[in-house]
Amino acid sequence: MPIPDYQALMLPVLRLAAEGQTRAPEAADKIAAQLGLSHAERQEMLPSGRQRVLHNRIHWAKFYMSKAGLIDTPTRGRFVASEAGRKLLATNPASIDVETLKAYPTFMEFYAASNTGSASSNETPASVGSMIDSTASATPEEQIDAAQAVLHQALKTDLLQRILAQSPAFFERAIVDLLVAMGYGGSHEDAARRLGKTGDGGIDGVIDEDRLGLDRIYVQAKRYAPHVGVGRPEVQAFVGSLVGFGASKGVFVATSSFSTPATDFVRHLPQRIVLIDGDRLADLMIEHGVGVRVARTVEVKRLDEDFFVEE
Questions:
Q1: Residue 261: which region, alpha, beta or left (left: phi > 0; alpha: psi -120 to 50)?
Q2: pTM higher than 0.90, yes or no?
Q3: Which range is the signal sequence, renumbered to this chain (predicted)?
């Protein structure tokens, strides 16, 4: 079953907290067992890869309920249901959500401050000014990751469009910049002398795999429109060129996509052939800072629990 959103987890979290002091990892294990979550679901990570989805949602369910006074934190890392929390459970609620929490003045104070942007950075763990939406199923971190994914995809589209609008020579230089940024080719000058200047035997360039030049990688670069895919015949011709040079490694870069027969073909070759389509090319350029720059940095901070430990 899918992992419930953080609001749906509020009631199970409060019930566990009413049984006695517990920790978030312990609560996650017990709730996962109650819900019958699979191992894969229990291990599912946020897109950022920094935290498990279930743990993140339990953390926010606990945090919001603590702002309503339903949960107390008696010691570091442990939480328990407060008297107010036990009274709420005594009413046998069908569910607990943000609308439920609005009945508590302390939560409304926090809610109003968060929605007007006046809450201090110490009041919300990982807050970046996002509003608490009672209709939202995503935690603040999930909202950040989702927004980042949209921006990332838009940037990839813009990158490929700009590459297609440039000259073939510009595309070759962009591949040089990328390979050097990834650690290939030694210096930029060495790579630039090699790539794009062989023009021989179906190979667009040769680049050193390491700075000592112990091995070489042969490169084919095709600047195709998105609807013009690369088929097996073109990849096979590239492999034939490698055989002619006695080469064992090759990279075929294209701004479009590779057909299924093309990708299947390279899987069973003695040579090591890497196919980089437009989508992966854009990802690599963004990852290695080629053709892009940082426009904005958002810091997400949490409490430093060690700071508050009295010796």
A1: alpha
A2: no
A3: none
Last residue of a domain, one of 91, 106, 138: 138
Name the phi and psi angles at 82, rounded to 5.
-85, 180
SS3 200: strand
| Shared-domain flag, residues 192 and 256 | yes
What's the pLDDT tens digit per position in 53-108? 999 999 999 999 999 999 999 988 899 999 999 999 999 999 999 999 999 999 99
Domain boundaries, position 90: 10-138
Say if CB 239 and CB 250 are below 8 A apart.
Answer: yes
Q: Are residues 119 and 177 in the same domain?
A: no
What are φ and ψ of residue 154, in 5° steps?
Answer: -65, -40
Looking at the fold, whether 184 and 81 belong to one and the same domain comes out as: no
Question: Which DSSP string corresponds to 235-270?
Answer: HHHHHHHHHHHT--EEEEEESS-B-HHHHHHHHT-S
On whether the CB atoms of residues 66 and 80 are closer than 8 A, the answer is no
Report the percent of the chain where pLDDT is more than 70. Answer: 85
